[in-house]
């Protein structure tokens, strides 16, 4: 008679092999499930092409009470409280000649300055962003001098006019196209004591 506790090797122990097979099958099934699930994918982010922006006009702050402005000659100038409205002068690309369409505005500026004989002005020469800094500083100076010469020819005392060039360093419009560049090629007036 056989011992019930000893496995019968001839017939095979079905309880031992069935239990081990079930565990192996379960482990195998779990491994396949993990492989199929994989890591979660990162969401794809689509970026739209940036839209073309219209040129931005830099905001001009309201004038404040008188302030001291020191220019290159170390001369102190006090900004006048009463406003004398002067129109900017615009230039063609790479030019410092006064355009015919700018002469009417300059003639108005001459009348305003003649009506305010105590007012002194600084004529700022500006350029667009094209060209080197050195070249644009020279071009801005030629533009400011051309405006000064026109005012002097119109009867304004040259002692009331100071010029300075900012080249491309102080743009009025912040765009990078012809519309913005045209706004930045200018002679700008600052009224001082």
Can you offer a commentary on this structure?
This protein has 193 residues and is α+β, with helices and mostly antiparallel strands. The protein has four helices and six strands. Strands 3-6-4-5 form a four-stranded mixed β-sheet. It has a two-stranded antiparallel sheet with strand order 1-2. A hairpin with a 5-residue loop joins strand 1 (68-70) and strand 2 (76-78). The termini are far apart. Mean pLDDT is 75; it is low at 74-81.
Using brief descriptors, characterize the structure shown.
193 residues, two-stranded antiparallel ribbon, 15% strand, single chain, four-stranded mixed β-sheet, 35% helix
Taking the sheet with the most strands, its summary is:
4 strands, mixed
Alpha-beta classification: alpha+beta
Silhouette: rod-shaped
Model regions low in confidence, pLDDT < 50 over at least 5 residues: 74-81
Number of helices: 4
Helix content: 25-40%
């Amino acid at each position: 008679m056989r011992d019930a506790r000893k496995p019968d090797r001839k017939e095979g122990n079905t309880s031992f092999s069935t239990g081990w097979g079930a565990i192996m099958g379960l482990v195998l099934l779990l491994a396949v499930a993990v492989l199929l699930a994989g890591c979660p994918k990162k969401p794809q982010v689509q970026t739209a092409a940036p839209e073309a922006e219209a040129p931005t006009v830099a905001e001009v702050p309201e004038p404040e009470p008188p302030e001291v402005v020191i220019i290159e000659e170390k001369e102190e100038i006090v900004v006048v409280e009463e406003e004398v409205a002067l129109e900017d002068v615009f230039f063609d690309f790479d030019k410092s000649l006064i355009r015919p369409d700018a002469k009417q505005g300059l003639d108005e500026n001459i009348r305003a300055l003649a009506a305010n004989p105590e007012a002194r002005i600084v004529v700022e020469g500006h350029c667009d962003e094209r060209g080197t800094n050195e070249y644009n500083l020279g071009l801005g100076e030629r533009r400011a001098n051309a405006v000064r010469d026109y005012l002097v020819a119109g009867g304004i005392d040259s002692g009331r006019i100071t010029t300075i060039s900012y080249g491309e360093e102080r743009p009025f419009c912040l765009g990078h196209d012809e519309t913005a560049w045209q706004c930045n090629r200018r002679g700008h007036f600052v009224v001082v004591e």
